[in-house]
Structures are given as C-alpha cells and as structure tokens.
Amino acid sequence: MKTIKNAIMMRVVMLSMLIGLSAFVYGQFQTPNPDSPITQTPTEDVRTSSSIEYSISGTHTAGEQYRWEVTGGTITAGGTVTTAGAVSVIDFTTDAHTITVDWDQVPASAIASLSAQIQVQKISTDGCPSQVQTLPINVWNLPTGNITDADVEICSGDATAGTITVELEGAPSLSADGFSVSYAYVAPDIEDGSGSVDGQTGTVTTNTSSVTIPLPATLINTVSTADRTFTVNLTLVQDDFNDVNGTWTAAGESYVITVHPVLETGDIQSTYSLTRR
C-alpha cells in the first residue's frame, strides 16, 4: 500500500512539474535573468516575394525548444504557424531550429524599404530560457521601370518631346546613383537630321524614383509611302543590389512614336493646255 501511495505521489509531483514547465515555456518569449536581448548587425536586405530559410542549427542541442516571431513576412515552414496581428509565430517547439519565411509584404514607397525582423528564443533541455535574438530585415521592391509617357504620332520632321520619363522601384544607393536604366532605339527608315537613329543605345542613372531618357530632337521618315515607327525599349533596369538584373512592367516596356511620311503631292492635271505646231 505504501509503495502504491508513493507512486501516486510521484506521478502527481511530476505532473505538477510538467504543468508548471508548460506555463513557463508556452505563449510568449520568456525573460531570462539577466535580460540582455541581442540585435544582430548588420541589417539584412531581401526582396519582396522572396522565400528564404533561416536557422540557428549551429548552436542547437537536440531537445531544445524554439519560439519564432516574424514581422513583415510569413513563416511557411518549420512548425505550426499562428498569427498575432501582423506577426507570424511558431510557439515553443522541440527542435524547431530552422524556419522558412516568405517576405510577402510590400514596402509603402517605391524606393524605400519595409522594416521587418525575425526574433527567436530557445529553452534548454534544463528549462532555462536564452536571450531573445533579433535579426533586423529590410524588404525591398524588385527593380522595375515603367515608361509613363503615352505613345504619340507626328509628321516627318516634327519635333519630339525631347525626353520620356521612367518611374522606378527598388533600392537606391547609400552614396551615389543606385539606379541604372539601359535603353535601345528601334527605328528603321528614321533619321534625326544627321543620320539614322536605328540601333542607338544608352544608359541613364539616378538615385531617385524617376529618370528621363533622351529622344532625338526631330524624327524624319525617309520613306514617302508609309508610316514608320520610332520605338524606345527598356533593355535593363538595375538598382543598388546585384541579385536581379531587372524587370519592367508590360505597360511601360516601350514607347512608340509613329512618324507619318512626307507624301508626294502628285502632278497637277489640267483640262486644257496649248500645244505648239
């Protein structure tokens, strides 16, 4: 009888300890003593819509429990995910030392980043909490360029607008021109008064949210029988990072000027003209 009572008491004690440990571990980051949260440097930079794995497996010991909180993105792998407002959470889970995050939130400004972060804390196999580790993240738009000017039609020899504007998204430089936009003219049978402009290329740079591409001052259609087109194509849009060569939106991929020809007036016809004998 005494043995049975002792066994029951031991189970009650163990159950109480487990309940107490559960209350200590789950639901929020724990506060160690001393409490000295760690913020990593430097801040990491990522692209919106990217999916990236994060891990602290280098310091992992089997059986440790981890809590992750991500602001500015969504945890897609690594444990059971819940949300708390704008925060994606994996609560304390054994051996959950690696997660995958989709950075699915978009910066509010075209050339500014969204401030995000990853936080993680682990509980040792002895039930002791670590310091909360924070990794700051900047989320940037992909480098994109959108030509905002509408296509136009002109007569041969007329003046052009002189420039067109490209609206930009992405990451500017911290010190110089971070954006580079390359373009090419496609203009068969078109001249600018000094020669053909077909195949000419160029690159413009800026560190702001827009840049202008120069146009020939005038366009001359060298064919008298049909319209010809002068087209500006974006060939490359780069920002201050080296991960993506650039994209551009379909609506702003090119700009077209239709150049009407100088028509031949034709012979004047009369109803009568004198003839010599």
3D structure, described in words:
With 277 residues, the chain is mainly beta. Helices cover 9% and strands 42% of the residues. A hairpin with a 2-residue loop joins strand 6 (81-84) and strand 7 (87-94). Mean pLDDT is 89; it is low at 4-25.
Please outline the helices and strands.
Elements: H1 2-25, E1 38-39, E2 44-47, E3 51-55, E4 65-71, E5 74-77, E6 81-84, E7 87-94, E8 98-102, E9 114-123, E10 133-140, E11 144-147, E12 152-155, E13 163-169, E14 179-186, E15 190-191, E16 201-206, E17 210-214, E18 220-221, E19 228-238, E20 247-248, E21 254-260
Parallel strand pairs: 1-10, 2-10, 11-20, 12-21
Antiparallel strand pairs: 3-8, 4-7, 4-9, 5-8, 6-7, 9-10, 11-13, 13-17, 14-16, 14-19, 15-18, 19-21
Spell out the key features of this protein.
21 strands, Immunoglobulin-like, mainly beta, rod-shaped, 277 residues, 2 domains, five-stranded mixed beta sheet, seven-stranded mixed beta sheet, single chain
